[in-house]
Amino acid sequence: MSHSGKVWMVFAPFSLFALWCAYDGWFNADSRITEQLIAFNRTFALLVGSFSGLLAYVAVRLRLGPRRTGIVAVIRFKSPEDGRIEESAVPWLWALLPFGCIYFASKRAWFHALMWLVVAPFGIGSVIYSIFARRVVEESYASRGWTPV
Q1: Which helix (H) or strand (E) holds 148?
Q2: Which of 32, 45, 108, 123 lies in disulfide reach of 22, CB 3.0 to 4.6 Å?
């Protein structure tokens, strides 16, 4: 599956959840919903909707073609043993999502996978790891002898 397809798979549930929250926040006429829940749904719909828009932008940019810099950068490394080329697109996004530790483990950055589990539950930890995710992935490949392509 292409990188764009993977991003669309993440986009779909986030956008559906944003729509659901928007419905409960603005359009639901149920009198049992409290004002606090309405405010929460409206706020969450805006936040998740904005994140969904960012995901859609990333997916479209990846579909148009990979770039070496910017928000949709694709990292490529070549194996020293068999010459196989591995790609990693938008590492900041995968580190930001709730399963960032699985992403780091798939890139064999074991220390960072464990640290993500320790730091990310405190909220700001996943944001901090998303900022440094590209460097973590690059160092993980470089430590195993892979060369950038």
Answers
A1: strand 147-148
A2: 45
> What number of other Cβ atoms are within 10 A of residue 124's Cβ?
9
Q: How far apart are the first and last CA of the chain?
A: 21
Radius of gyration (C-alpha) of the chain in whole angstroms: 18
- Please write the tens of the pLDDT for every residue from 30-63: 777 777 788 888 888 888 877 777 777 777 766 6
Chain segment 88-147, per-residue pLDDT in tens = 877 877 777 777 888 888 888 889 888 888 887 776 777 777 878 888 888 889 998 999
Which among 78, 80, 75 has a CA at the least distance from the CA of 95? 75
Measured distance CA(25)–CA(35) in Å, rounded: 9
